[in-house]
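Narrative of accomplishments. A recurring question from our advisory board has been how the design workflow behaves on a single, concrete structure rather than in aggregate. To address it, we present the structure tokens for one chain from the evaluation set, followed by the sequence designed for it. No filtering or post-editing was applied between the two.
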């Protein structure tokens, strides 16, 4: 498979990759996601702000502000809380030029990230969210720069950190590595364990 395989067959293959990524989650994590209704996803070929806005209007949930549509249009993936669905833009530049194995890995990582995001939005406490800037300061500089450069708001830092660390932990689990990575501060590891129920 290559990243440029578009059309229905390409979408079907990417749906299969995301389904496989779902099955790789620990059973307890899937149970938590199912409990909050975060077990649905859709792989799309268009900018996600437009897709999310159309879906919300179709469900009589109103339209997104134009600024939110524009912001979401740049995203690789979104957790749409009101619809309880993860949207993934398989046509995003992030997947451009990748070989088959790289598409599988990166698409899986994106899905894991969004499921971590869904759990964080549902389960993180007010104090966790308020401590986002502090958590960001604990991270290795390269990781912290990625979050800052992505333009997240301070009240989104904790959710983004939890989601990204969670996707990394699932990726490590895929290759048989468990426990806290040596570069990850204990306090953030415990945050992720508490928010997403991670016990690997």
């Amino acid at each position: 498979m290559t990243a440029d395989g578009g059309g229905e067959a390409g979408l079907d293959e990417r749906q299969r990759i995301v389904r496989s990524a779902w099955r790789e989650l620990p059973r307890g994590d899937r149970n938590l996601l199912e409990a909050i209704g975060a077990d649905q996803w859709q792989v799309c070929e268009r900018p996600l702000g437009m897709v999310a806005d159309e879906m919300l209007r179709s469900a009589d949930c109103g339209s997104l502000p134009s600024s939110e549509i524009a912001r979401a249009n740049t995203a690789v993936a979104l957790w749409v809380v009101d619809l309880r669905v993860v949207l993934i833009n398989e046509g995003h530049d992030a997947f451009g030029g990748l070989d088959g194995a790289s598409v599988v890995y990166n698409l899986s990582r994106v899905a894991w990230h969004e499921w971590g995001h869904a759990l964080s939005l549902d389960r993180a406490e007010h104090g966790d969210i308020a401590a986002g800037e502090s958590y960001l300061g604990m991270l290795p500089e390269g990781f912290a720069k990625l979050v800052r450069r992505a333009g997240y708001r301070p009240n989104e830092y904790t959710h983004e950190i939890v989601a990204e660390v969670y996707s990394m932990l699932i990726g490590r689990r895929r290759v048989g590595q468990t426990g806290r990575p040596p570069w990850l501060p204990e306090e953030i590891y415990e945050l992720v364990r508490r928010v997403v129920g991670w016990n690997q």
